[in-house]
Structure of Nitroreductase domain-containing protein:
Amino acid sequence: MGSTATEFKNPATATLLELVKGRRTYYGLKAESPISDDAIERIVQDSVLHVPSSFNTQTSRVVLLLNEEHQKVWDLAIGAMEGLVAAGVLPQESFEKSTKPKLNSFRAAYGTVLFFVDYETLGPIKEKFAIYADKFDPFALESNAMSQYLVWVALESEGFGANLQHYSPLIDEAIAKTWGLPASWKLDAQLVFGTPTSEPGEKAFEPLESRFKVFGKSA
Ligand SMILES: Cc1cc2nc3c(=O)[nH]c(=O)nc-3n(C[C@H](O)[C@H](O)[C@H](O)COP(=O)(O)O)c2cc1C
């Protein structure tokens, strides 16, 4: 997708776009890492520090879980789902056939990055810029999504595969308790990563013509 013949002034731009094109959802993952834990930590820390936020509010909070700590997330999710089965909300059969194997496939990976938004820190700025008050929460989530995307692309650039999950609010309380996190940290997404054991599925693209327009382009 997109032109391959375009010349860029900075070769890193082409490399960046190649990484963007190469990022996919990988579900088959194992608990091996192609890089050091320090390198993983650096990727996540750089995303926390350098991804922008509206008015530089810096609302994203991130927890990196590796090895056994990562497995705990998915044990908590399995426990939460078992609770739904016991409550009669989730049929036992679909839990055993579909939910549990899926959660165990996440558990089999190397790590999970938990992405949170601290909406409570936005109180003062909402007062200061009352006219934008209802925009700050969505802006905070958008900024968080940028961090998720950067970590996803960077981890895959290093040889990991990753997939993005959303088990909030089901696991929120157990997560906060297990790792002693502040109550104001609201969980948004879980990025599961590990060494790929299978290729991503086929991906269809809606034509650019129906999704993109350009005006005023020089000949
Ligand atoms: C905002 C967002 C939310 C997503 N939520 C989930 C999710 O909860 N579970 C999941 O398995 N994949 C989730 N995905 C992955 C998408 O299904 C996937 O990115 C999409 O089908 C395109 O495939 P690709 O990632 O291989 O390019 C999410 C992706 C985005 C961008």
Remarks:
- Residues 136-157 form the longest helix (22 residues).
- The chain has a mean pLDDT of 97.
